[in-house]
From TrEMBL:
<dbReference type="GO" id="GO:0043565">
    <property type="term" value="F:sequence-specific DNA binding"/>
</dbReference>
<dbReference type="GO" id="GO:0032259">
    <property type="term" value="P:methylation"/>
</dbReference>
<protein>
    <recommendedName>
        <fullName>site-specific DNA-methyltransferase (adenine-specific)</fullName>
        <ecNumber>2.1.1.72</ecNumber>
    </recommendedName>
</protein>
<feature type="region of interest" description="Disordered">
    <location>
        <begin position="78"/>
        <end position="98"/>
    </location>
</feature>
<feature type="compositionally biased region" description="Basic and acidic residues">
    <location>
        <begin position="293"/>
        <end position="306"/>
    </location>
</feature>
<keyword id="KW-0489">Methyltransferase</keyword>
<dbReference type="GO" id="GO:0006298">
    <property type="term" value="P:mismatch repair"/>
</dbReference>
<dbReference type="InterPro" id="IPR023095">
    <property type="entry name" value="Ade_MeTrfase_dom_2"/>
</dbReference>
<keyword id="KW-0949">S-adenosyl-L-methionine</keyword>
<dbReference type="InterPro" id="IPR012327">
    <property type="entry name" value="MeTrfase_D12"/>
</dbReference>
<feature type="region of interest" description="Disordered">
    <location>
        <begin position="287"/>
        <end position="306"/>
    </location>
</feature>
<dbReference type="InterPro" id="IPR029063">
    <property type="entry name" value="SAM-dependent_MTases_sf"/>
</dbReference>
<dbReference type="GO" id="GO:0009007">
    <property type="term" value="F:site-specific DNA-methyltransferase (adenine-specific) activity"/>
</dbReference>
<keyword id="KW-0808">Transferase</keyword>
<dbReference type="InterPro" id="IPR002052">
    <property type="entry name" value="DNA_methylase_N6_adenine_CS"/>
</dbReference>
<comment type="similarity">
    <text>Belongs to the N(4)/N(6)-methyltransferase family.</text>
</comment>
<dbReference type="GO" id="GO:0009307">
    <property type="term" value="P:DNA restriction-modification system"/>
</dbReference>
Amino acid sequence: MAEPILKWAGGKRQLLDELYARFPSAFGRYHEPFVGGGAVFFDLEPARATVNDANPRLVNFYEQVRDRPDELIARLTSLDDPQSDPDPDLPHAEETARDREVDSYYYQQRARFNRRPYEGEFDPLEEAALLLYLNRTCYNGLYRENADGGFNVPIGRYADPDWVRRDRIRRASDLLADAEIRNADFAYVLDVAEPGDLVYFDPPYEPMSATANFNEYSASGFDREDQRRLLDVAGELDEAGVWVVLSNSGVMYDAYAEAGFRVDREDATRAINSDADGRDAVDEIVATNVPPAERREAGQRELPDF
């Protein structure tokens, strides 16, 4: 079985059973317009799929995993412990582009990652390796970008971090070989989904409160107008005979219920929180147009195709 390679905000490992209980017993092609860490995609292992994300660095990562897994593993193996001294043969061994002191290998690689789109020839393999390295060695595995698109998470504290992830990369590469990877707006799915296909939407959540606003895992963010557009897209897919399953925060319950979707509340523990004691269950919804009689059986792990 393939497994997620990255730790990603909003991951759905805790909701898999609840999501699968609302999937149709059979469907054509699978589409995931907000793939993120890919917890559902990798666990489901669909035979035919499109996966998409608005974050171009994440999309490049999956492309490199699919196309160059052995080269990616070799590049990751060459990286050093995050607490080590900076490599004097690499850029930013002493200070970042903003003249901040670099005191460890981690912060050197973070500075390189943030300057890669602007300095020299772009190397997509190095970009992918640095993304995974930082994800596995940063504080709490959190991916966060500032308004300029710069990765700004500090170093984590790990006794023996594993940033190579060779087995997961190889299994994911095999699965992604049969998937179409996109870097587009989520509405692309209106052009590719056919009647009988399944679309699973896992957007950045609408905040539960004014302070619960961790939905900006990329600099572009996802605002209320995007939430309205997503609701419209889900409605168009429903009218076109496409199966839809969607997760979001509890504040979106009424909007999807009023649009005619079957909506249930679920509790899920957030895996990413600055305070480990604060990883409490949060109110989420799962909305779907799949009637109960059309859903897969409880505990079913493989979905038959048309």
